[in-house]
Every structure is written in structure tokens, then in C-alpha cells.
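Handout, section 4.2: multi-component inputs.
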Amino acid sequence: MAERSTRHGTIELARLYRAPPARVYAAWAEPAQRAKWDVPGRWVIVEQTFDFREGGCEIKRFGPAGDPRLLATTHYLEVIPAERFVYGYRMTSRDVPISVSLTTVQLARAPEGTRLKLTEQIVMLDGGDTLELREEGLASELDKIAGIL
Amino acid sequence: MTKRSATPATFTVERTFPISRDKVFRAYSDVKMKAKWFGGPEEWERSEHKLDFRVGGRESSSGGPPGGPQHHYSGIHMDIVPDERIVLAYEIKVGETRLTVSLGTTEFKADGKGTKLVYTEQIMFLDAPEHLEDRKKGTEALFDNLVAALAKAH
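Output:
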């Protein structure tokens, strides 16, 4: 029997975008927008479905070029347009579960545009991933959003 | 625009049971067993407990004090390892207002001939003022119900 382990943690990231909240929100809500930034760095998405609404479920298969080993299954728990959305997702690597997350994204109007706050409450499963790597990946994605806005 | 807030917190609850973990696990996987211990205070009126126990499957139950506001529990199973681990994402609504969303990890560990259960809840308080102590107390009470229900069944 495999040795089971869990590691719980919380990742908090903030960004200031020079665009109004509705525009930042569209980076998530509109499939064509999201497909532009929804993986870290130069990784690629090989399969992705979109269902961005309360109760909606999406999948995304992705990874480094030539090795799309990761699969994220996302369930949206709350969607308040241009203000806040909350989703839970499980990630597997080569079909082995490595983490489950509960992610809350808050958008607030600021003089410069939009202040984004992302809080990811996460449980790492059986040593399959680390908080440090996940934070790096999420930070890379948020930086890519600035590029498309 | 409403003033929005989101406040995260984490707490854990542990219990030990003198029975093997497959039996403790069944108190989660079997809807009849789960309905026996999982719900609000005894004086509440409750709806039917719905449970689709598989990854991606949903669970729900509602209840409330007679004549009072309805509390709605609704969850999705995010990960299941039979007899070992359950990860559930869930929300609590009172009426139409979503108060909290949570990620609950339940770990079943062999402890001699018995089982040690470790529950870790990563909770997010939405708009509502943080009420962590209340939530911890409510969760402790649920696990007391579980201990009593399993003592009766075995």
C-alpha cells in the first residue's frame, strides 16, 4: 500500500492591473482570453473545456511541451461577475492525484485599475507536488494576464 | 457594489475509534450511515440527505430550526482513497446567502486495532464576519455525533 501523506497550506498572491475589473474578469470568463495565459511559463494546454459559471465543471490537460501529464478538474462554487469567484480543483499527474485546491479570486477597483487578490487553500497529496512550485506557477499565470490586458 | 471580503482560516479536529478504518470510512460512504450523524442540532428539521459518493459526485442536505432560516450544505467529492482519505469542497448557505466555502480533508489512519481520524478544514469566510470559533464548535459536535453513531452500530 502506498504511503499516504498530506500537506496543507495557503498561497496568497496580489497584483495591480491597469485595466478595469470587468476587463480583468474577462480574462477568466472568456475562453479565448483564458486560453492565452492559463498555464505557467511556456507550458502548453493540449485539451481544455470551458464552463465558467456557478456549478460549472471544466477540465484542462497540460504540461511541458511533449509531456501533457497534468490534468486539472475544476468546479466553480461562486461566480460574482467582476467582483469575486471561487473554485475547487483537483490536479492529477499521470492519473495520480497530487493536490486539491480551493481558490478565491477577488477583484477590487483601484485608482490605477484593478487590485487582484488570489487566495489558494491547498492540500498536497502524497508528496506529488510542493507549495513552492505551485506558487511559482500561479505567479507566472498572473504575470501573463498583465501581458494580455 | 457591495463591500466584499474573504477571510481564510484553518482548523483540525481529531478523534480515535476502537474499530477498523473500513468501518469508520463506511460512516462517510454509506448515505444511511452518514445521515445518522451529519446534520445540524437535534431539534432542527432536516431534509433528505443526498450523497453521490465518487470523485465529482455531490452531497447535500438542508435543515434549520423550526420556523427559522434554512441552512444549506452542499459539497463535491474532490478526491477519494477508499478507507484512507476523502477530500471534499463544500459551501454553507443560510437562505440565499453563501456564508463560507471550505476544503475538508478527512484522513483515516490505522491506530493499533482502531482508527485515528484527522479532519483538516481550510475555510473561507465570505463577506460575513469571521466566525471560526462557532464553526469549530459545530464541527466538534458533528464528530461527537459520529463517535456516538459508530459506538451504537458496532
